[in-house]
Amino acid sequence: ADLMSCLHGSCSCLLPDNIGGKGIFPHYMASKDAKWYVAHTYSGYENKVMADITKTVENRNMSDIIQDIKVPMEEVIEIKDNKKRIVERKIFPGYVMVKMIMTDESWYVVRNCRGVTGFVGPGSKPVPLSAKEVENMGLEHKTVQLDFSVGDNIRVKYGPLEGFVGIITEIQTDKKKVHAKVSMFGRDTDVELEFNQVEALV
């Protein structure tokens, strides 16, 4: 089915039962591991595309192939009539992020979903996001194992304060930073440090 028929409702994200042969859609590099890909959508279709793909994955038991779908959002303060309110806004309007193993089936499900215009990549050939891009976009949250907690004594391993010792007053897991009181020239000074800049004193 072409894109126009999808937009007019004569097809859906459902996969034809006879799909799955070799090399039907040679528009991508097949992958054995799940990677994040970016699908371009018509403006305003992002959440519908996410919902439709999610439903297809459930109906087809494809959760091992298409593992996650996200429309990244952020909270912003909007001022209207001199009143502040917090609203959610799409970080990347017109895009849906899909974590999947690239196969004929997964390509077809996403590419032929109503509202999707193609994958992001040269000539619409799907190109997975790099690990750095995934991290910067906040698509996956890795659990950080910390060797210290609030109240612990730490030493600064490198940077302008290398060698100084202090006490942790706050840990910001989301920003991967700690706040500490460091003794400098006989005075306690509040400083902000990266996780990897400090080590616990035993």
Question: Could you explain how this protein is built, in words?
Answer:
- The chain is of the alpha+beta class.
- It is 17% helix and 34% strand.
- The strands form three sheets. The protein has a five-stranded antiparallel β-sheet with strand order 10-9-8-7-11, with no helix packed on it. A four-stranded antiparallel β-sheet has the order 2-5-1-6, with helices on one face.
- The longest helix is centred in the first third of the chain and has 15 residues, at 46-60.
- The radius of gyration is 24 Å and the shape is elongated.
In short:
The chain has 202 residues and is an alpha+beta fold. The chain is 17% helix and 34% strand.
H/E series: HEHEEEEHEHEEEEE
Question: What composes the largest sheet?
Answer: 5 strands, antiparallel
Unreliable runs: 1-26
Distinct helical segment count = 4
- Mean pLDDT equals 80
Rounded radius of gyration (Å): 24 Å
* Helix percentage: 10-25%
β-sheet strand percentage: 25-35%
Placed side by side, the strands forming the largest sheet appear as 10-9-8-7-11
Distance between the termini: 65 Å
Number of extended strands:
11
